[in-house]
Amino acid sequence: MIYSIRAIQDKHSIVPEEMNKLIQLHKVKVGKSGMLSKNAYELLISHLGKETDSDSKPIYILNGNKVPVKNKPYYETPDGRISIFQDDVISFLQGLPPNSVDLIVTDPAYSGMNQKLKLGRGKIIGKYNEAGKEGAKWFEEFHDTEENYKAFLEACFRVLKKDRHIYLMFDSFSLLSLAPIAREVFEVKNVLCWDKANIGLGHYFRRRHEFILFASKGKRNLNSKNIPDVWKIKRVTSSAYPTQKPVEVFELMLKGSASKDFVVCDPFLGSGSAAIAALKQNCKFLGCDISSKSVSLSKDRISQFLKTRIDPYQKASLLGDDDAMTKLFFNGKLK
Ligand SMILES: C[S@@+](CC[C@H](N)C(=O)[O-])C[C@H]1O[C@@H](n2cnc3c(N)ncnc32)[C@H](O)[C@@H]1O
């Protein structure tokens, strides 16, 4: 075992500038060629992630970037390519460095649908009760007032690199009320439809679809000109997490807009479907959710997938009988 500054930098992706600050802060004695005593090495290691920057704010070093310590990952894969955080969406995004994300794909928890429409008894239909605890919700909803939604979009804009894409999922009602705000922040390019192939519950008409707003920050072409604007992919039944979406929905977003090693971000992580899509498409991933159930389930899902290449929470493909989808997924290269 070599105790040196270099060994710490390499192992923990610390940039030299940050390493020097840490050394000065803890008055560590450094020998010739950056060699350290075992005690000094262990002291420095024990302070990684608890460092104090010049504003006295605690910081964590993520891939060489400073991130507030509040945002230390809940879980990180050993290679550092996938990190998930338990935090509020806006606080999480504000803690990321500007222009650090290559693609945002996300499915927010819309509470407006309940509050504004007062349909039926005003409840979102679905499995919100945790087994054994009647009335308990699995997660808090993001309060999607217009003000909050704009703040969320602006936080997305800040972290997204220039000339990159964002995909935002909407039900019909949040599309009517909140999607127009997206035009104030991003260049909205299209509204896609996820056709769930089979009908679900619903008022007046039974629901079979959701919308996906596709927008950009700056200019960027899609990876293919052959992706249709209706995506027929079956819904997840008997899901491990309420509102779990098919991995294929996120994979299509990545097929359209990601390159290998892109940093993909989903700040409303849920069951981690977008993380599995990122792994399948050889991308890096940053995810966040406010719910402890979400982050623990996602951690379990990601680590099992990495060990076995089998997704424990969506064992089978949900592609239906749509030729365009089958070609996109099974004919290898996009045309
Ligand atoms: C519609 S679900 C996402 C489902 C996910 N796409 C999947 O496939 O499993 C929305 C998620 O947003 C989370 N959420 C609600 N309010 C939040 C907030 N303020 N910050 C971060 N996450 C929040 C919920 O805990 C929930 O897991």
TrEMBL record:
Say if the entry is tagged with keyword Repeat.
no
Q: Which family does it belong to?
A: Belongs to the N(4)/N(6)-methyltransferase family.
Protein known as = Methyltransferase
The Gene Ontology biological process annotation of the record reads:
methylation
Its source organism is Deminuibacter soli
Methyltransferase in keyword set: yes
Q: What is its EC number?
A: 2.1.1.-
Q: Which UniProt keywords apply?
A: Methyltransferase, Transferase
First-tier enzyme category under EC: transferase
Superkingdom of origin organism: Bacteria
- Do you know which InterPro entries this protein is assigned to? DNA_methylase_N4/N6, RM_Methyltransferase, SAM-dependent_MTases_sf
**Domain DNA methylase N-4/N-6: start-end pairs:** 101-299
Give an example GO molecular function. Answer: DNA binding
